[in-house]
Amino acid sequence: MERKNIQKHKVDDIERLPENVRVELIDGQLYDMAAPSVTHQEISGFLFNKIYNYIENNDGKCRVFAAPFAVYLDEENYFEPDISVICDRKKLDSKGCHGAPDWIIEIISQSTASIDYITKLNKYHEAGVKLYWIVNPMQKKVTVWYFERYYYVEYAFGEDIPVDIYRDFSIALPDRIGWAE
Questions:
Q1: DSSP per-residue letters across 8-28
Q2: Which domains does the chain have, with CATH numbers?
Q3: Could you tell me the pTM of the whole model?
Q4: SS3 (DSSP) at 91
């Protein structure tokens, strides 16, 4: 069997795509992004609102963004995390975030699980993300990676999950989320 020459892409290639095309770039390879499910959107909206309200009510310096939002880790890695929290405003410009956000949340589906649990986890850790949440609606659990302290904890929906970048903030995903699956 012949090995095919696979073209390596760069961030510039992403920026030349039509606006309605959603892809992520991982180690120079393009990955199509499927439209999110109703449950995915429900979880994303819930988490975004909780985080946004906390930041606004506490005069926070960080900003929260929901997908589609561009995160440029380097020339060969471009992601659109479901939720990104950035505290260093120098990383932000009109295109998105250049460098590692402080906190990233990915809501997985069966088709994205291995990328979110393995590939993105490693890329985010290497880039300097402090806090990484993987929300698994099928198992109703959240895996929280505390990269600065080199450990992770799994929480069930309904449990308070402390937000490590804020001392007095926690979120509990209600069990009722995911009714549409």
A1: P--HHHHHTS-TT--EEEETT
A2: 36-171 (3.90.1570.10)
A3: 0.91
A4: helix
